[in-house]
Amino acid sequence: MPSYPPVQSVVRALSLLAEINRSDFTTVGDLHAATGLPKPTIVRLLETLIGAGYVHYDDRLRRYQVTAQTASLSAGFHGAPVLVEIARPWARALTREIKWPTAVCVLDRDAVTVKLSTIPDSPISPFHATIGQRLSLAARALGRAYLAFCPDDERRILVDLMKASPDAENRACTEAGLAAMIATVRRRGFAERDAEVEPRSSSTIAVPLMLGERVLGTFGVTFFRSAVATPEARSRIFYPLKEAAAGIEAELRARSDQDSRAR
Fold first, then answer.
1. Which of 158, 194, 235, 261 has a 20 to 30 Å separation from 223 between CA atoms?
2. How far is CA 54 from CA 31, 44, 63, 73, 104, in A?
3. Tell me: the pLDDT tens digits for 148-173?
């Protein structure tokens, strides 16, 4: 719940801007019919948006339209923000189903970084918090899932970064070891945390989130090893994880197609 009630003037201005954006040109009357806002309120908000540079008034047509400055509102809304927005309801639903916490990561040079975690939604999480945590590509499930499924040319660059990495987990991995790990992950369809790294009481399995041939991020579940010790127990995590990942990927494709049509 928010700490304070929404500032209604801001809500109205944003809804008005969204409505103007839906058409090439619009009038005060059109906006009144679409939003139900009083016309004097609409005029004041329009003048504010014009002053801020987001709306233009055409004197000849006597109509309003958005300006190119509105594109700046989406300047950071790609990649990780879109992935997190789409993945969040799927991740929460998965935790409600299997109880274990889930995480979504994106690439961060020689590692992946946790951008979304459902630890607050899990009654049995092995960790208290992981947002912002960097996980190595060599040893951590969410990093391995990225490295194993990204395109070959990208993987070669990442391996070079890993060799020069300050992370001991990355530096300790040999080319033969990486090749074997990648082959195993691709054969299984999921990555698992190296059993030799801490904390050994827990483990993670992870899958990639793909858009075509590109890996946009990784999606994983963390659990106590002692509670998930059999193939049957693992399957009760893996198959719901794969199903949720497929749902996220379907929404990513739909969003990408929508953006392509808009361009």
1. 158
2. 16, 14, 14, 10, 34
3. 999 999 999 999 999 999 999 999 88
